[in-house]
Amino acid sequence: MSWISNVLGSSIGKKLLMALSGLFICFFLVIHLTGNLQLLAGDGGQAFNEYAKLMTSNPLIKFVSIGTYLVFLLHIIDGLMLVFANKKARPVKYAVGAKAGSSISSRNMGILGSIILVFLVIHLYNFWFVYKFGSMPTVDYGHGPVKDLYKVVAMAFANPAYVILYVLSMVAIAFHLIHGFASAFQTLGLNHAKYNGLIKIAGIAYSILIPLGFAIIPIYFYLVLA
Amino acid sequence: MKVKVKVWRQKNAKDKGGFKEYEVLTDPDSSFLEMMDVLNQDLLNKKEDPVAFDHDCREGICGACSMYINGQPHGPSKGTTTCQLHMRSFKNGDSITIEPWRASAFPVIKDLVVDRTAFDRIIQAGGYISVNTGNAVDANSIPIEKDKADEAFAAAACIGCGACVAACKNASAMLFVSAKVSHLALLPQGAPEADLRAAKMLNQMDEEGFGSCTNTQACEAMCPKEISIKHIARLNRQFFKSGFSGNQ
Amino acid sequence: MQLDSKIPKGDLADKWTNYKSKVKLVSPANKRRIEVIVIGSGLAGASAAASMAEMGYKVKCFCFQDSPRRAHSIAAQGGINAAKNYQNDGDSVFRLFYDTIKGGDFRSREANVHRLAEVSASIIDQCVAQGVPFAREYGGLLANRSFGGVQVSRTFYASGQTGQQLLLGAYSALSRQIGKGQVEMFNRHEMLDVVMIDGKARGIISRELITGKIDRHFGHAVVLASGGYGNVFFLSTNAMGSNVTAAWKAHKRGALMANPCFTQIHPTCIPVAGEHQSKLTLMSESLRNDGRVWVPKKKEDCNKDPRQIKEEDRDYYLERIYPAFGNLVPRDVASRAAKYMVDEGRGVGKTGVAVYLDFSDAIKRLGKHVIEERYSNLFEMYQRITDENPYEQPMRIYPAVHYTMGGLWVDYELSTNIPGLYAIGEANFSDHGANRLGASALMQGLADGYFVLPYTIGNYLANEIRVDAIPTTHVAFDEAEKKVKDRIAKLLSIQGNQTVDHFHKKLGKIMWDKCGMSRHGDGLRQAQKEIAQLREEFWSDVYIPGTDAEFNPELEKAGRVADFLELGELMVLDALTREESCGGHFREEFRTAEGEADRRDDLFTFVSAWNHTGVGQEAELVKEELEFNNVELKVRSYK
Lengths: 226, 248, 639
Ligand SMILES: Cc1cc2nc3c(=O)[nH]c(=O)nc-3n(C[C@H](O)[C@H](O)[C@H](O)COP(=O)(O)OP(=O)(O)OC[C@H]3O[C@@H](n4cnc5c(N)ncnc54)[C@H](O)[C@@H]3O)c2cc1C
Ligand code: HEM
Ligand code: FES
Description:
The complex is a heterotrimer of chains A (226), B (248) and C (639). Chain A has nine helices and two strands, in the order ααααααββααα. In chain A, strand 1 (138-140) and strand 2 form a beta hairpin. Chain A has 226 residues and is an all-alpha fold. Chain A has a two-stranded antiparallel sheet with strand order 1-2. Chain B has eight helices and seven strands. The model of chain B has no long low-confidence stretch (mean pLDDT 96). Classes of the chains: A mainly alpha (226), B alpha+beta (248), C alpha+beta (639). Bound molecules: flavin-adenine dinucleotide (FAD), protoporphyrin IX containing FE and FE2/S2 (inorganic) cluster (FES).
């Protein structure tokens, strides 16, 4: 098994983990968004609440979600490790910083990631933690009480500060992915004149559409429902 | 024309170093290094220590020259080394800040001169085809697709100047390493060792303290030979292959 | 003194084969105990160091650059010759041999040149095996181009970067041996003396350029692969650091310097632009395949925009004087013709020291895209340097110093007259006679390093197996080190008022004006005086900052210029005593009625090898007569 530690211990190996975990999270975000869009179903939250229940009770899904947490953790820890190692590779900074030749996002993946991390902590605390361990209002759709996450969401998004935090964080994710999506393919060694354009366009489309989808929810709640 | 240059001066590796400003009278047809020559002659005439900088061929091919000029390795002209940069790229009265390459793997020796032997050690770790003198078969016995040969050549055009490291925010040497890995992997002669070579060179790169690649592409933009980052993708592939085929 | 060139007996074509089958060998167990020092990591040095290390010798390799990959060989552009006959155009070993001998104006040794032609094919095989990406045809086979003055296509190339690719090949082989611990590499080290024990070369003294530390190194043999000395002219196409120091120190220890005045002046270089010019850039000779060289017929037109000068007012002088070869006459002829035009006052450009190389006809005839395909990288380079677009206006070119055929005298085994001291590559004088053909320096450097020296040195080392490494505490090392240190101390103690460059430029001007493209006895005698005087000024008025115990590029330069100042005098002496015109050496007094070179075979068919007798004293001439048994000495004619 030493080759595993060799590969993963190397700089490219660490990058491989970043790319795989990053793309996995991208995939997760699509699922997450599909679920969340049920908040906009206009049914007072029934679909969403039942979905939330399913997601937390089905053992298989539970198993998958633990995996997801781990992937997040991996991405975060590995990412921060890379950021610090890379800082060490240039102990003395230039007096005139480099600007040409690279995009702002690409130069600031660590900062964008950290913003996302702060967001994640708040986000998890607001919803996941409360759902699991807090006292939740319940509602009954005819087969026993179900935790009313919809209400918690609606309450949170009545607060303009949260809305702004969410929207800005989605912007951060968008920028993280504008570079990250295509970058992950390059890391995986997928660079080919024929497909680069496609990957780039798909990356930009993804980086705009998914965060936009997430951002619509708080805005909708704040503007329409509140 | 007259320019103001702000140059990093550092007596030796241990010295703290700092910037010093000078005015230089030069002309637009002079090369950047000729402008530095004039500065040095001025300093010598004043019995001051001239600015040390690496240079040799002054034709853009040996890779010795290495100045970080106004925030860009080799200055503002695309696909150009410092020695091929000309003063006509600047205006009369311009201020020009000149720094050495900055990377922990490239420690400063004096002023603008840095130690780039880390690159040599990376090549020594595996940047070759293992063939002894006298072992070769007839050169035309293995035809090589022209496209592949051309691509191998494009990668082999690397001059080992280190601008990629200087440009990269992570001081990564991936463009340098990948250019050599790619050059040799593309040729049938280099294929048998391709996996092992990638692994060995990469490990050495890590050991030397270069950063990792964030795919910012600054290296490609600043490379005086305009070497493409697609070679980095090829290096990545080769490296994964080496890992998964258990070659390490 | 008698020189023995050690040419093996037998037919020309069999000499090398016979030699190899009889040469003494060193057993693997003994090789492990034998140490060889190689000075230089260019094509010659890197290939020799790598090959000897592969054979099992312990090798120490030195270069003054920060990496062996940056040796001056990296800058060669055009290509490398080899008698492969891949084009089926009638090439053969004999033809390559003959072209090289003739190109050298019959001033080189038959046996050496024939061997060079013999091993040329193996060089290409070796390089391809190492991964050198030579240009290829669509069928996947190697491409060739033709090069100056020959009728076959035998030049292999990698775009305009052949030297780079070949050197990177040799560098990778060298790196492999460094990685294995078989070669110990000393970057940023300058060799400053040869150590002699009992008449044999046994080591060197070197200076670590970063710390200034002086080191001693023992070797059973020492190989000099330190390149050419074109920088004695200050301005040349050589890299800034190219110098004669290693060869000169050996010369002062008794190694003979052969034909030092044979200098190649390349006709197509970008002209000097201003007084701060530090070096000259070559534009590949291949440009003359499509460009037409001209100057205005009338002096008044010289400052006009060339595009405004009417066809009938242009003098396509090469086509006029040499109708048979036209723009493709050999380098020496083209260079001299350009000089005459400028001397007549018909030079062009701001300085008046240039001629036009015009592509407008070729563009009209072939279309711009064809010219682009052939020369775009050169055109770009030209535009970057001059800020003029050669697609729209003619290039301005002028000859510049490019290569030195002269160098340390070596015998067939590439050994100098000092046992144990070898010289390979541009540092020796061997194969190019009075003029080198294009694309044959790379061939010679690699032939010497890969295929000749590793064998011939064994013939010497086989007798050295009983010699244990001599400790560097030996008195000979003490003496040599003291000499080196004293000289550095002396240089630093002068603290005068002129910079090193000041002297270098002055020396360069004397050499260029009086010992350059054409030479005259009067000028040469004057140059002798001027150089002697300049040398005195140097030793009393040079200013070198800093100390010897630090990284001090001015000190390095000073040491090199001091050696150039001695070499210059020897070159002038050599030029003065060679009372004929041959190849790159053109004596104005010795020309035919038509004004062409008058080679005097009856009197000068010999190698002038010079024995050092002391600085400022006239060196002693030792002649090696040249015998030609396989070719007829012909007069080169390009009319
Ligand atoms: C611009 C240009 C283009 C050319 N193009 C061609 C071409 O197309 N085809 C062709 O055949 N030839 C060409 N030539 C000629 C050819 O490049 C050289 O003759 C050849 O490369 C010389 O190789 P070398 O190994 O002998 O020496 P070099 O490559 O000059 O190497 C000398 C080595 O010696 C070291 N050294 C020197 N002195 C010392 C010292 N005192 N201590 C320690 N180390 C020392 C240096 O560090 C260096 O490593 C060209 C030359 C020039 C200038
Ligand atoms: C919405 C969640 C996230 C997604 C979808 C995501 C996705 C990605 C992707 C696809 C990459 C590109 C990988 C590559 O270049 O190969 C990446 C890189 C990166 N991510 Fe994330 N990421 C997320 C959250 C985070 C967080 C919370 C951090 C925390 C610090 C972070 C830090 C980084 C860093 C530092 C990189 C650059 C690594 C490198 O190239 O060296 N990311 N991310
Ligand atoms: S000095 Fe050789 S590349 Fe600039």
